[in-house]
């Protein structure tokens, strides 16, 4: 048998080859390992250094490794928060030529913690609620994407702090399956598994004395069901609004924002008689715009800036001759985005003299210009364009701003 590393990205196999694949994972020498907190698992899991990265290595049968690898890649494609699968290693043998178990390699999720580490200092009930909220959001997102988890639990989730809230990531996809659409029976089953698992995990914490005395494991397990149902309803409800009541749509968007969802685009259809609109929100999780902008343009901006810049980019894209979304002959979004950075974003920012920009970064300047354009356009009742905006912004705003 020959060692084989199957990976989608070419830069990883090289650095992964340096790991001691001829030694059982439990016996790997310290020099390769990274001591970070891990959750409870059935398989042997270790964190190791590979190239400049920290990877999680899990020893698991070949069939399961390949399957989980594929599922994690699918989740990535569906933009659901989960750990990144990097490779599957097969054909391992020890120094005597005896076969060793294959391994699934994922990228260590930076800044994440397993729930047991988070509970080491007793968590306040309100914090536990936020943690469970994040898990409910993850479960809804998985279900919207057609993923039935089969084993939703705190142990199979990683949590990352996200500006006062928590973001949950799927770490263990072994029991999952993807299909175009889940039945309500499949969703109910998943939620029931989550309820039972979470109640059990909280009871374990209670037994070891690390649960706040006022937290009832059973009630908190039940809370995930309620939270899930509220979210699912709010997200999938298609409603018809009288055209005259556009603010009803705004209210719904705000409610979704309050639930922690960001509405990226909305499917709004006018009825044939033109009196009603049908509204189905399309939601994304926090940080969506930031990631999207970074991927398309390389610009690293805050979420609100990114949302505004992406809006501008998308509107501009639609004016391009080779813009044809979904058509393989059309320009790829990355290509159009590159053109936008070169022909629109950079020239516009450069039109603002450097000494006036001060320490303000380019994304923020462009964002302010977009806001200013909106103000001017509202005032004059037509789109004033970027050139006029820059001129007016320099004259009426920037020259009066203390430099910094
Ligand atoms: N990519 C990763 N980043 C951070 N932690 C990870 C990663 N992969 C695994 N872990 C840790 O290892 C634990 C066990 O992984 P898991 O895939 O659930 O194994 P098992 O299939 O044996 O249950 C997780 O709870 C998590 O704490
Ligand atoms: Mg697990």
UniProtKB/TrEMBL annotation:
The protein's name: DUF4032 domain-containing protein
Residue stretches making up the DUF4032 domain: 231-398
SUPFAM superfamilies in alphabetical order: Protein kinase-like (PK-like)
């Amino acid at each position: 048998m020959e060692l084989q590393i199957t990976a989608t990205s070419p830069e990883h196999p090289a650095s992964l080859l340096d790991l001691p694949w001829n030694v059982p994972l439990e016996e790997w020498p310290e020099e390769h390992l990274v001591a970070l907190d891990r959750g409870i698992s059935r398989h042997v899991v270790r964190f190791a250094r590979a190239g400049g990265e920290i990877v999680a290595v899990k020893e698991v049968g070949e069939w399961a490794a390949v399957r989980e690898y594929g599922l994690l890649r699918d989740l990535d494609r569906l933009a659901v928060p989960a750990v990144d699968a990097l490779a599957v290693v097969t054909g391992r043998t020890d120094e005597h030529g005896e076969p060793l178990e294959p391994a699934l390699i994922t990228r260590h999720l930076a800044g994440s913690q397993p729930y047991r580490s988070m509970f080491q200092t007793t968590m306040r009930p309100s914090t536990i609620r936020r943690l469970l909220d994040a898990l409910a959001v993850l479960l809804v997102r998985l279900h919207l994407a057609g993923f039935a988890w089969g084993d939703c639990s705190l142990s199979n989730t990683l949590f990352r702090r996200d500006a006062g809230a928590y973001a949950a990531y799927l770490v263990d996809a072994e029991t999952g399956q993807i299909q175009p659409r889940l039945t309500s029976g499949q969703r109910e089953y998943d939620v029931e598994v989550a309820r039972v698992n979470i109640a059990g995990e909280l009871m374990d914490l209670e037994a070891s004395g690390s649960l706040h005395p006022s937290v009832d494991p059973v009630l908190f397990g039940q809370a995930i069901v309620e939270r899930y149902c509220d979210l699912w309803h709010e997200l999938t409800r298609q409603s018809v609004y009288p055209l005259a009541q556009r603010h009803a749509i705004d209210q719904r968007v705000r409610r979704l924002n309050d639930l922690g969802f960001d509405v990226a685009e909305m499917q709004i259809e006018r009825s044939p008689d033109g009196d009603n609109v049908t509204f189905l929100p399309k939601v994304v999780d926090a940080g969506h715009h930031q990631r999207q902008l970074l991927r398309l343009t390389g610009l690293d901006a805050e979420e609100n800036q990114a949302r505004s810049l992406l809006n501008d980019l998308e509107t501009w894209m639609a004016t391009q001759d080779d813009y044809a979304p979904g058509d393989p002959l059309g320009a790829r979004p990355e290509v159009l985005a590159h053109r936008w950075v070169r022909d629109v974003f950079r020239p516009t920012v450069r039109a603002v003299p450097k000494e006036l920009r001060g320490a303000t970064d380019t994304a923020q300047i462009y964002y302010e210009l977009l806001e200013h354009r909106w103000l001017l356009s509202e005032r004059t009742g037509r789109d004033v364009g970027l050139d006029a905006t820059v001129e007016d912004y320099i004259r009426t705003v920037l020259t009066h701003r203390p430099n910094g």
